[in-house]
């Protein structure tokens, strides 16, 4: 009993320190606070394809947006996005980000107005049995004017976070914005919690999730566009939130998502893009390589966490055994020394345990987050490919319409000719729109990738330094313990 | 062909192993009259050949210095001959060295060979070096354990004079002691079963002598606890090795990340990779030193405490025989039949019992002295090594941190 208590107490105190450090670094990046006045009108919910269907995937590894009008050739898909008339598409938002990366950097250097702190805390179980769920308190402290108050507290459950991510992904991904993915679902983990097991593993699960949710929100608001998004504001501020039903695994929307995912995979194979821009090719390859290595690293770190926990347990076990050996040893001085050895090993086992928590919460979770983020980055590159494909398809269509018109000219059918000419104009518009969209998404991605890489450098630097400091602490403690033991060993006469 | 990977014909120079021999038993400062060591060893496919080197001024030997080649089975033969010799019933017979076991290591090397295609050249070379180092470590240990056995025998005032021992040291042909066949192994098995049942019986008999009564209680408990500690220390050290292996992999991946990253992180990753390469070598050394100073110590005293228990058992057996002979004598006297014979038997049993008791007392006292000295030496060295490695680690970490923080 006491060892469980001790490990929980030690765990939570280390965790508190570690997590507050994590929070500090995540919220430290200065961000763009100024935007043009004509912001996104709350009613239109930002630029998006006006598609009623589920445009987003599960909040897990694969993230891809799709619209059902996959083949513009077949369906005359009236996507508002490519209608030249829509003002929303080329929204004022574009002005904001229509800057060179250099300008952006200057903006960030001068920034001191980004001030927002978010914490996710106080997990509470609501309900009983299999319908139970955890509710988390989300506290936002900020001086930014877009928020109605300085400090807001709301209660949210996990599916609310997934719902937020879904909405953001559907709104922004196709524009090339890297939307931070929400934490993953875990049926096994949640079932244990629901069933009411109060053991260490479900406590750890809840803590892991709480921490992940916090990091998710912090990353989301770090993104200048997302910070202003009404859905984000609503999530952080409003006391009541409509239940995000579509995130349920087996809902109608969920099934549609799966179908879209499959369609996506097939389409990816058939799009063979003529990459004219070397930057994109290079970046895609880099992210591919990075993905492979980060996954490998993540796996190794997870293995380390596991082995260190094991080491901690085995050291504790040895400590007890050494104490027993000391008890049965009939030479007094040796007996005492063995008991001291047992005490040293007991302290060391606690050290190993603390270190394994640092391994996990600093490095392993960071890597996990980045593996998911890179999936989002890859998704954004895919969106660009789709935009390109759409543009190409429009060009093909235009060509066909022109040929059709030429044919009609010979046949001399004036009323049909008029229609054909109209159609040509329509498709010329679509081609222009397609090209504009493609260029826009390319520009957005360049900027997004620049921002992403900067954040990545900062994140890794800060975390790795904190991690090395934790290792330093462990070694210092080890020195202390063994220095205390050495004279005891020498005293054996 | 995985044979290529296995260290064929591994020779160990003699100066490295001396340290181990002394670590386990401190007062084996053998005098000039008889010095034994294993000067060389060869590891072949399924056997190890030890070169046993002797230096002696005793007249029993033809030369003052000579060497022979022996294999593990011959050590066992020698040990068993001591155990079976009634004359030595009153001594703690130095425990036999464990059989050289490279199976696990060989298997790993084989798996590595099979998986060669699936990893990069650097990874393969790295892992191969590590497995070879592991193989070498196991090899060194088995050499040391065989040596300790011989040193113990050579240091024992009575056993060192044993004829079989001299034959073992000097006879430069194969002793032709084949391993036990199935029938003999089965006989041994039954003997052990009877013995342990007997052991329980004998242990139950309360001893008039306080010293032996105390020793019995002490040894029974001590042996069990050492067994437990030995197993637990092994597990702890294995986890430590696994963690060091993980750090190795992490270092490799960080290196790859460093070479391919397009941002400032590349230098960062390379520095950290370099750091982890060094720290994991230290972690591996920590595990190896713990293995040597702690795990091996406990294993050795597990075997020695068993040998001490065996001595007590033999004494107990002799006591029971003596008591039975007394009873038989009384009966014979009462019936007035075969009295002389009964008297002779009783005398023999008495002498045997008293002889064993006398030497056993001294043996057990020596055992305690040796044990305390060995634990002291090893625990002190363990603490010193742990400190050395922790300080080394700390210095590496701090200097790397200094560089990394300075870069930003």
TrEMBL record, chain A:
Protein's cellular compartments: Cell projection, Lamellipodium; Early endosome membrane
Domain (PX): residue spans on this chain: 114-243
Entry keywords, A to Z: Acetylation, Cell projection, Coiled coil, Endosome, Membrane, Phosphoprotein, Protein transport, Signal, Transport
A GO term for molecular function: phosphatidylinositol binding
Region (Disordered): 36-113
Coiled-coil residue windows: 417-444
CDD domains linked: BAR_SNX2
Major localisation: other
Record-level GO cellular component terms: cytosol; early endosome membrane; lamellipodium
One GO process term, biological-process aspect: protein transport
Membrane spanning residue stretches: none
UniProt keyword Coiled coil, yes or no: yes
SMART domains, per the entry: PX
Matches recorded under Gene3D superfamilies: Arfaptin homology (AH) domain/BAR domain, Phox-like domain
Family indicated by similarity: Belongs to the sorting nexin family.
Stated role: Involved in several stages of intracellular trafficking. Interacts with membranes containing phosphatidylinositol 3-phosphate (PtdIns(3P)) or phosphatidylinositol 3,5-bisphosphate (PtdIns(3,5)P2). Acts in part as component of the retromer membrane-deforming SNX-BAR subcomplex. The SNX-BAR retromer mediates retrograde transport of cargo proteins from endosomes to the trans-Golgi network (TGN) and is involved in endosome-to-plasma membrane transport for cargo protein recycling.
PANTHER family tied to this protein: SORTING NEXIN, SORTING NEXIN-2
Protein name: Sorting nexin-2
Organism of derivation: Cyprinus carpio carpio
TrEMBL record, chain B:
GO biological process, one term: retrograde transport, endosome to Golgi
SUPFAM superfamilies documented for this protein: BAR/IMD domain-like (SSF103657), PX domain (SSF64268)
Assigned GO CC terms: cytosol; endosome
Lineage top rank: taxon: Eukaryota
Domain (PX) ranges: 28-175
InterPro entries: AH/BAR_dom_sf, PX_dom, PX_dom_sf, PX_SNX6, SNX5/SNX6/SNX32, Vps5_C
One MF annotation (Gene Ontology) recorded for this entry: phosphatidylinositol binding
Name of the protein in its database record: Sorting nexin
Source organism phylogeny: Eukaryota, Metazoa, Chordata, Craniata, Vertebrata
């Amino acid at each position: 009993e006491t060892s469980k208590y001790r490990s929980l107490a030690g765990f939570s105190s280390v965790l508190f320190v570690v997590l507050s450090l994590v929070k500090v670094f995540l919220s430290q990046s200065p961000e763009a606070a100024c935007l043009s006045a004509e912001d996104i009108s709350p009613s239109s919910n930002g630029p998006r394809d006006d598609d009623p269907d589920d445009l987003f995937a599960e909040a897990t590894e694969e993230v891809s947006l799709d619209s059902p009008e996959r083949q513009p050739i077949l369906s005359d898909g009236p996507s508002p996005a490519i209608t030249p008339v829509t003002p929303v598409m080329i929204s004022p938002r574009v002005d904001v980000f229509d800057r060179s990366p250099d300008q952006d950097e200057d903006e960030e250097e001068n920034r001191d107005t980004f001030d927002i702190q978010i914490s996710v805390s106080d997990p509470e179980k609501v309900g009983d049995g299999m319908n139970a769920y955890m509710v988390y308190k989300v506290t936002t402290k900020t001086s930014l004017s877009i928020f109605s108050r300085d400090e807001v507290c709301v209660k949210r459950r996990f599916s609310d976070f997934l719902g937020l991510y879904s909405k953001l992904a559907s709104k922004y991904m196709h524009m090339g914005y890297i939307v931070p993915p929400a934490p993953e679902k875990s049926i096994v983990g949640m079932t244990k919690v629901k069933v009411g097991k109060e053991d260490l593993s479900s406590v750890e699960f809840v803590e892991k999730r709480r921490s992940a949710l916090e990091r998710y929100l912090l990353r989301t608001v770090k993104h200048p566009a997302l910070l202003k998004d009404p859905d984000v504001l609503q999530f952080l501020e409003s006391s009541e939130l409509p239940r995000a039903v579509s995130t349920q695994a087996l809902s109608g929307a969920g099934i549609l998502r799966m179908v879209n995912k499959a369609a996506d995979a097939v389409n990816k194979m058939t799009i063979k893009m003529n990459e004219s821009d070397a930057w994109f090719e290079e970046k895609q390859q880099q992210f591919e390589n990075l993905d492979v290595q980060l996954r490998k690293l993540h796996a190794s770190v997870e293995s380390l966490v596991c082995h260190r926990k094991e080491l901690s347990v085995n050291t504790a076990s040895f400590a007890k055994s050494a104490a027993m050996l000391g008890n049965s040893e009939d030479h007094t001085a040796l007996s005492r020394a063995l008991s001291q050895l047992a005490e040293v090993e007991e302290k060391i086992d606690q050290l190993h345990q603390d270190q394994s928590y640092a391994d996990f919460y600093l490095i392993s979770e960071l890597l996990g987050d980045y593996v998911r983020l890179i999936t989002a980055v890859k998704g954004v590159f895919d969106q660009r490919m789709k935009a390109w494909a759409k543009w190409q398809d429009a060009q093909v269509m235009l060509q066909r319409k022109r040929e059709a018109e030429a044919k009609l000219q010979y046949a001399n059918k004036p009323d049909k000719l008029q229609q054909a000419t109209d159609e040509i104009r329509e498709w010329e518009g679509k081609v222009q729109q397609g090209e504009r969209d493609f260029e826009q998404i390319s520009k957005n991605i360049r900027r997004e990738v620049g921002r992403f890489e900067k954040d990545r450098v900062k994140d890794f630097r800060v975390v790795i330094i904190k991690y090395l400091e934790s290792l330093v602490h462990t070694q210092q403690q080890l020195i202390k313990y063994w220095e205390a033991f050495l004279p005891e060993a020498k005293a054996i006469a | 062909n995985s044979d290529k990977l296995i260290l064929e014909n591994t020779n160990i120079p003699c100066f490295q192993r001396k340290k181990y021999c002394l670590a386990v038993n401190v007062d084996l400062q053998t005098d000039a009259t008889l010095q034994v060591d294993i000067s060389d060893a060869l590891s072949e496919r399924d056997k190890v050949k030890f070169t046993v080197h002797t230096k002696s001024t005793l007249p029993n030997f033809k030369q003052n210095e000579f060497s022979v080649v022996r294999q593990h089975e011959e050590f066992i033969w020698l040990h068993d001959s001591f155990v079976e010799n009634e004359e030595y019933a009153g001594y703690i017979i130095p425990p036999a060295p464990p059989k050289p076991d490279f199976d696990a290591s060989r298997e790993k090397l084989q798996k590595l060979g099979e998986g060669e295609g699936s990893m990069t050249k650097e990874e393969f070379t790295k892992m191969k070096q590590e497995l070879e180092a592991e193989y070498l470590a196991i090899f060194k240990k088995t050499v040391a354990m065989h040596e300790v056995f011989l040193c113990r025998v050579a240091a024992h005032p009575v056993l060192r004079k044993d004829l079989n021992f001299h034959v073992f040291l000097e006879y430069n042909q194969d002793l032709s002691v084949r391993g036990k066949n199935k029938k003999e192994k089965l006989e041994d098995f039954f003997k052990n079963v009877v013995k342990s049942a007997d052991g329980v019986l004998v242990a139950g008999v309360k001893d008039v002598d306080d010293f032996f009564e105390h020793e019995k209680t002490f040894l029974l408990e001590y042996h069990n606890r050492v067994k437990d500690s030995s197993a637990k220390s092994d597990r702890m050290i294995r986890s430590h090795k696994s963690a060091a292996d993980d750090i190795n992999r992490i270092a490799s991946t960080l290196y790859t990340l460093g070479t391919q990253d397009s941002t400032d992180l590349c230098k960062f990753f390379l520095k950290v990779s370099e750091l982890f390469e060094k720290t994991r070598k230290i972690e591996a050394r920590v595990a190896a030193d713990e293995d040597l100073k702690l795990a091996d110590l406990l294993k050795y005293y597990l075997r020695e405490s068993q040998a001490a228990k065996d001595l007590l058992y033999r004494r107990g057996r002799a006591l029971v025989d003596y008591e039975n002979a007394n009873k038989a004598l009384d009966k014979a006297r009462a019936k007035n039949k075969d009295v002389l014979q009964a008297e002779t038997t009783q005398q023999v049993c008495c002498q045997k019992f008293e002889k064993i008791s006398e030497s056993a007392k001294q043996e057990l006292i020596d055992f305690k002295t040796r044990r305390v000295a060995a634990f002291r030496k090893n625990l002190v060295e363990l603490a010193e090594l742990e400190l050395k490695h922790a300080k080394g680690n700390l210095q590496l970490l701090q200097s790397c941190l200094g560089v990394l923080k300075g870069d930003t």
